[in-house]
Amino acid sequence: MESGKRSSLALLPLFLSFLFYFDFSKKLPSSDCSLLPHNHYWIASKYIVTPNGTVSGAVEIKEGRIISVVAEENWHVNSWFTTVVNYGESVVMPGFIDVHAHLDDPGRSEWEGFPSGTKAAAAGGVTTLVDMPLNSAPSTVSEETLKLKVQAAEGRVYVDVGFWGGLVPENAENASSLERLLNAGVLGLKSFMVPSGINDFPMTTASHIKEALPTLARYKRPLLVHAEVLLDLDGKMELEDGVENARSYSTYLKTRPASMEEAAINQLITLSKDTRAGGSAEGAHLHIVHLSDARTSLNLIKEAKQRGDSLTVETCPHYLAFAAEDIPDGDTRFKCAPPIRDAANKEKLWDALLDGDIDMLSSDHSPSVPEMKLLDEGDFLKAWGGISSLQFVLPATWTHGRKYGITFEQLASWWSEKPAKLAGLTTKGAIAVGNQADIVVWEPDMEFDLDNDYPVHIKHPSISAYMGSRLSGKVLETFIISAMSLLVVPLTFLETTTWHDI
Ligand SMILES: *[C@@H]1O[C@H](CO)[C@@H](O)[C@H](O)[C@H]1NC(C)=O
Ligand SMILES: *[C@@H]1O[C@H](CO)[C@@H](O)[C@H](O)[C@H]1NC(C)=O
Ligand SMILES: [Zn+2]
Q: What is the distance in A from the centroid of ligand 3 to the CA of 292?
């Protein structure tokens, strides 16, 4: 586009902040964002990532919706009469949708919180996130506790937020309680096959899950599963008289071997067969969260998918960015469950992602207060697990992925399109006509150091495993249209969800 188009920019205070709002009807939690004073405008770039590929051209936005996507050669607007925001060679992509974030609000907002967590999301190009039902207090396991979530979030979020509900033994065995939770507008359920570490979020066995699947099938809502089970590790978990060093990451790794994931997934695929066409839970969908084991566990998932099970899987940037061998002694910022495994496993995760065997990515952003990470002691066995990453998922995925030749289209698929489908968000996840104009603009070749000078919005930067690293792929702007929407959706709206196109 000719540089003349840039002239209209001078009229707008656009480059002053990272975030634009133009929904005047809602109050902003603070002044770190700016309102774009237009309800009809164009975003132009040489690299607009659409489901039809990356095009040079412009996206037309009116009243918060994308109303056209036009290639440069067909784009004829008079820049004197039209507002054009021209990003030149910066990439314009659908905003990231993070289907796995723990905002810990209400009840543990000293760990994270709706304002801080959603500000970190906006700063990192994440325009929608789906909050996990645990680490807040109480956990979101009933209609009543969902109401507390919604009350805590109302007027305090900077991006769109939806909620997963918890599947726990109490509601798994009580269909009417589960129905009330689903009717109240959670986007789906999440359960743990190992103790979650949170008292009011007990684990579910395969038989609890089996019991819940027909209800989920009726509602066409997914069940997200933390797939690890406790094993009798033949005494391997016993640390011989403290000989094993708890400051060594390898000690922690031994306590959560890949066989724990494998055993859980083995149980799950005996259930997911019922989701096949004609099965007793047809219409239900199982989604395995944060897969770490790229060996046997991944093969089991691949085979189940090939047999027609309604099954998807995500992994997280920390499994793709870090390797167990490189984690310094005592650096508990890297503790999470399942654990980060060896470098060869990391390579296999990338292969699986590139081959489409892993469907999507999520942050599993899960901070705590710094004291619980025991950074001074560095005890991997006692420290709280959870990686704090929400603001950095775009540059982390890009920095590590570009070595494998990932494309902008793949990024958009893993971080927007497929997560939108999992969560049933039919007007999000792509730069396409009719969709909400949730957009991230970023610069692939811009490198930056994540140091104390970098504007970090995550509540506790000191516990983020990414601090101290150099990343490329800087987020320049995040456009959010229905800012502060809580995606608490009446279930009838979701009846048309189909899983097959994830
Ligand atoms: C099932 O849940 C409903 C609604 O939450 C509750 O009223 C009922 O007492 C529960 N039934 C049992 C058997 O616990
Ligand atoms: C992709 O291109 C086809 C053919 O030009 C068009 O019909 C379709 O609407 C486009 N899809 C999107 C999402 O832009
Ligand atoms: Zn999690």
A: 13
